[in-house]
Specification:
Elements: H1 4-18, E1 23-26, H2 33-41, E2 46-49, H3 53-67, E3 71-75, H4 79-82, H5 85-94, E4 98-104, E5 130-133, H6 141-159, E6 166-171, E7 194-196, H7 203-213, E8 217-221, H8 228-236, E9 240-242, H9 257-262, H10 265-269, E10 273-277, H11 284-292, E11 298-302, E12 315-318, H12 321-331, H13 339-353, H14 362-371, E13 377-380, H15 384-392, E14 400-402, H16 412-423, E15 427-432, H17 433-438, H18 442-449, E16 453-459, H19 479-482, H20 489-495, E17 499-502, H21 506-515, E18 519-525, H22 528-545
Parallel strand pairs: 1-2, 1-3, 3-4, 4-6, 5-6, 7-12, 8-9, 8-10, 10-11, 11-12, 13-14, 13-15, 15-16, 16-18, 17-18
Helix pairs in contact: 1-2, 1-6, 3-5, 7-12, 8-12, 13-22, 14-15, 14-21, 16-18
């Protein structure tokens, strides 16, 4: 049967077109794949690709004013949707018809710590003429008929005097690409949840966790995890997989958790339980492994909220994570003989396999930046940079920051600038070309504050991360997701007064980083169409390196 997401998206855009829509602006993303592809396939629609949603919103106002017709805006989920707010406010007060289509996570991935998921319900408040939350697409005639009615009303609400913006929030479940959509799987029911919610650490909670951890637990630390978790793991001989953003740092941790999960090595190492602190890990492979292994006792310790999008946790402790880890250290049993040593041996073998990374490459740039930051705070952009630091950056050490709350690319340079201004110290940022272009105004801020900021930008002329998704091999206007731009980054940043260099070798990158002063931009150019193969080759190299160890 056809893919329900794409049928729904094409029905939505087709109905809007039938009621007079001619211009659509698409900003790159993944969750909005069905909407972007639909816009590119509906006859009579002119589709524009604009990277920055804030700019896209105001461009939509200009188009609507010039043509006298409504314009549709399409973005992915998360802060991308929030970027439209200034334009929505302006459209409301100046009576400009905009149809804002924000893709969203499905309901089961909201308010559970899933990546790139924020509360988008009524996001623009009283600034829109009408808001409607579409349900997740269903393959029924009744649902599609209702969708046609909703799209018709959206155009009417936007264009009836006084004109103004309307907001349709559009959730999609996987698969997002235009692949055949089989019958939805039957829910498994998930783990047998126990919700233990003490407001302070108590002996009963500690004893309950101790009874589950047995002699082969693995600790997983994400962003916002306590440093005491590393002390706990070290004292008891437990392996600790640390996210690069974890405050525990990675000097005492297993640094290749992503690779272990990706190559199915975690199952072969055979842990008997998982103890998780802080946010979900950057690594999708590691997160999916935890979601799949609901047969293992999994204890989630967090200070509040509900950060478990795959419902893998069997016990949730809402308490002070640092205090709990410290108490657990005195109560829990040591790991089995050689338990942590097995993990360390495998981890070191992978590190050896990655000691000589290809250049120029995105993994090579990530490793080089980590190795040469010389103690400076490191800000890492979302998309591929943080994933490459996770997989290939090694022992990153503490004070690595990123925007993994909503997982958006926006504002990374501005945040790094704020760090440098507040601390008075040099700050290093590693980011992609789209992330730099999305926050190019930060150069004005940085110059005004007089900060010491070294920026390494990996330029693959677009959203290279999307080449890792199934959409890359499926029919459709793929460039609407990757947003190829062709801009001369050197000319752009030099225009803001930044020092610019192109690093053609790893040694040149190291030397430029060491000599950088003030606002300095170092560009590393890579080929995004080759990046997938580079990663696959490295993962295979890792697989060969651990042969015989697990």
């Amino acid at each position: 049967m056809p893919n329900r997401n794409h049928v729904a998206a094409k029905t939505l855009l087709g109905t809007l077109r039938a009621h007079g829509l001619t211009h659509v602006i698409v900003s790159p993303g993944s969750r909005n794949t069905p909407l972007a592809y639909a816009a590119g396939s509906v006859e009579g629609l002119t589709v524009h690709s604009i990277l920055d949603e804030r700019s896209a919103g105001f461009a939509g106002i200009g188009m609507a004013k010039a043509t006298g017709s409504a314009v549709a805006l399409i973005c992915t989920s998360g802060t991308a949707a929030a970027e439209y707010l200034p334009a929505v406010v302006e459209a409301n007060l100046s009576r400009v018809p905009l149809i804002v289509l924000t893709a969203d996570r499905p309901p089961e991935l909201r308010d559970v710590g899933a990546p790139q998921a924020i509360d988008q319900i009524g996001l623009y408040g009283s600034h829109v003429h009408w808001f409607h939350e579409l349900g997740v697409p269903e393959p029924t005639a009744t649902w599609m008929d209702a969708l046609v009615g909703t799209a018709t009303r959206a155009m009417m609400e936007a264009t009836t005097s006084p004109a103004g913006p309307v907001h349709l929030n559009v959730p999609f479940r996987d698969p997002l690409g235009p692949v055949p959509d089989e019958t939805a799987p039957t829910p498994t029911g998930g783990p047998a949840w126990e919700h233990v919610v003490p407001r302070s650490v108590d002996r009963e909670s500690v004893d309950r966790v101790v009874s589950l951890l047995a002699d082969r637990p693995v600790v997983v630390c994400g962003d916002d995890s306590p440093e005491q978790a590393a002390d706990l793991a070290e004292a008891l001989g437990w392996p600790l997989i640390a996210d690069p953003l974890s405050p525990t740092g990675r000097d005492r941790a297993i640094v290749h958790g992503d690779v272990l999960a990706r190559l199915d090595l975690l199952d072969r190492l055979d842990p008997t339980a998982v103890l998780r602190f802080g946010a979900i890990p950057t690594s999708k492979a590691l997160m999916e492994w935890m979601g799949r292994r609901t047969d293992l006792p999994q204890v989630v310790v967090d200070s509040g909220g509900w950060r478990d999008p795959l419902a893998s946790g069997s016990i949730f402790l809402r308490t002070d994570p640092g205090s709990f880890a410290a108490q657990l250290e005195g109560q829990a049993i040591r790991g089995a003989a050689g338990w942590r040593d097995r993990w360390v041996a495998v981890d070191e073998a992978i590190s050896d396999a990655f000691s000589d990374l290809p250049w120029p490459s995105e993994p090579g740039a990530a490793r080089a930046v980590v190795a040469n930051r010389n103690g400076a705070d490191l800000w890492v952009g979302s998309s591929m940079p943080i994933r490459d630091v996770d997989a290939f950056g090694g022992a990153t050490g503490p004070r690595v920051f990123g925007h993994r709350g909503a997982n958006g690319i926006d504002g990374l340079l501005s945040a790094a600038t704020g760090d440098a201004a507040a601390t008075g110290q040099r700050v290093v940022a590693l980011l992609g070309d789209l992330t730099l272009l999305h926050d190019v105004g930060a150069f004005v801020t940085a110059a005004g504050l007089g900060v010491d900021l070294t920026i390494v930008v990996v330029n693959n002329l677009g959203g290279g991360i999307f080449h890792f998704l199934p959409q890359a091999d499926q029919p459709g206007p793929f460039d609407l997701l990757t947003a190829p731009h062709g801009h001369d980054l050197g000319a752009i940043v030099s225009g803001f007064g930044a020092t610019y260099h192109l690093a053609q070798t790893e040694d040149e990158l190291r030397i430029r980083m060491a000599k950088a002063k003030g606002i300095s931009v170092i560009e590393v150019r890579t080929a995004r169409d080759e990046n997938v193969e580079v990663h696959r080759d490295l993962w295979e190299r890792a697989r060969e390196a651990v042969a015989g160890l697990v």
